[in-house]
């Protein structure tokens, strides 16, 4: 939500170039987070006591 707030505020201030840059940077960070979470869940193997 902070990334959306910062980008929206920069857009509101008519700082279109900074808004675009922050959208690209935050977008990459958010995408990286979801990719890493996907691979963590994919490799998760619960330990079953025998």
What does this molecule look like?
Helices cover 76% and strands 0% of the residues. The chain is mostly helical. Helix 1 runs antiparallel to helix 2. The chain is rod-shaped, with a radius of gyration of 18 Å. The mean pLDDT is 86.
Could you name the key traits of this structure?
50 residues, mainly alpha, 2 helices, 76% helix
Summarize the structure.
This protein has about 50 residues and is mostly helical. About 75% of the residues lie in helices and about 0% in strands.
- Biggest sheet overview: none
Q: What structural class do you assign from the helix and strand content? A: mainly alpha
- The counted number of beta strands is 0
User: Count of helical segments?
Assistant: 2
Approximate shape: rod-shaped
| Helix and strand run | HH
Strand content: under 5%
Distance between the termini: 44 Å
Give the uncertain stretches in residue-range form. none
Radius of gyration: 18 Å
Mean pLDDT: 86
Helical content (DSSP H or I, runs of 4+): over 70%
Which helices and strands occur, and which strands form pairs?
Layout: H1 2-12, H2 16-42
Helix pairs in contact: 1-2
């Amino acid at each position: 939500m902070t990334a959306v707030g910062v980008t929206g505020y920069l857009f509101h201030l008519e700082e279109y170039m900074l808004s675009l840059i922050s959208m690209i940077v935050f977008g990459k960070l958010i995408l990286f987070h979801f990719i890493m979470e996907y691979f963590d869940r994919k490799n998760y193997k619960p330990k079953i006591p025998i």
